[in-house]
Amino acid sequence: MTVRKTVAFSKKSANLFFHILTKCNLSCRHCYINPEQQGESNLPLKTIKAWLEAFSHDFPTANVIFLGGEPTLHPGLNHAIHYARQLGFRSITVDTNGYLFHDILSKVSPGEVDFFSFSLDGATRKTNDGIRGDGSYDACIKGIHKSIAKGFAASLIYTVSRLNIHELEMMPSFLNDLGIERFFIQVIGLRGKAADSNTAGNLQVTRSEWLKIVPSMAQKIARRGITVSFPKVYLDPEEKFECAGLVARNYFIFPNGRVYRCPLCEDLPIHSLEFIDNQPVKTAKLNESDLFALNIPEGCVMNKLIQPDNLSYTVGGVPEYKIACCLLKEEIKPK
Ligand code: SF4
Ligand code: SF4
């Protein structure tokens, strides 16, 4: 038995997606990082602590997600985790490609890190490495085994594309064998390298492929005792549309001090906040916040601006469906 729900946005909880660097040892085909817009330096540990502290005043029970680039390339990640825990944040997750640099598993404890969340884009070496680079599959699997052996909880992030959607059907037993507790399915976005090379446009799956395969596979995986989350993506015309920028508390923090409320805006200098003297300060208009309230029949404004190809209209010009906020998730839990 499983229970499926749309995870409603809430102003009561907050999520801090803290990119402590943008550097990475891999070069994935769909990488959304854009160092030109987000900074190239490793954020000094002192600054990481100051920014965590600044957010802890307004959001003492936020969930903190450390990410990059590859966050374990940062030599101060363990200290950042200790400090975030000390500040009392609700949960701490580390998103990693699995290489687990700087012997991070020996420097933090399962009591401090709620999840190591591993990115893998295929059930097979061939498919994953075709997307993420040679050797990345073996490194990721090794990292998962190692972290579970040390008592950490592991989740897995799978970015669905034309290159790997066929391997979703292999995931239920694969995830069980690995010992994964939570599975996140992601959609490719036209940002960062993916937008530059125009690769993602070819890699994105169609609406019918997504709807035919993703929800049913998520269901099958959840029946194996794994919590599965995937983006809603498409809303029927009568379904209510909400923009997380208006009704939720998500902050995407980058090493150059930019703080975005919407991931689709991260390629543009329209961030809502910017760290000045280690305090998040609202930026001048126009910025992303001015877009959030625009009410259009297609749903998400940013989607229409940067990836209009996933919209479809009747002959009369009416949208056939709305695009949901990219942060709206469906969750299926084992009962
Ligand atoms: S997608 Fe993640 S692992 Fe891949 S290159 Fe980008 S930051 Fe690195
Ligand atoms: S993805 Fe669209 S709906 Fe979601 S926060 Fe951004 S602009 Fe708003």
Strand content: 15-25%
Bound molecules: iron/sulfur cluster
Principal-axes geometry comes out as globular
Amino- and carboxy-terminal Cα gap: 5 Å
How many strands appear in the DSSP assignment? Answer: 15
Structural class: alpha/beta
- Individual helix count: 13
- The residue-averaged pLDDT reads 95
Enumerate the strands of the largest sheet in spatial order, edge to edge or round the barrel: 1-15-8-7-6-5-4-3-2-10-11-12-13
Low-confidence stretches: none
H and E order: EEHHEHEHEHHEHEHHHEEHEEEEHHEE
Rg estimate, integer Å: 19 Å
State the share of residues found in helices, binned by percent: 25-40%
Biggest sheet architecture: 13 strands, mixed
Looking at this protein, list some descriptive labels.
335 residues, alpha/beta, 13-stranded mixed beta sheet, binds iron/sulfur cluster
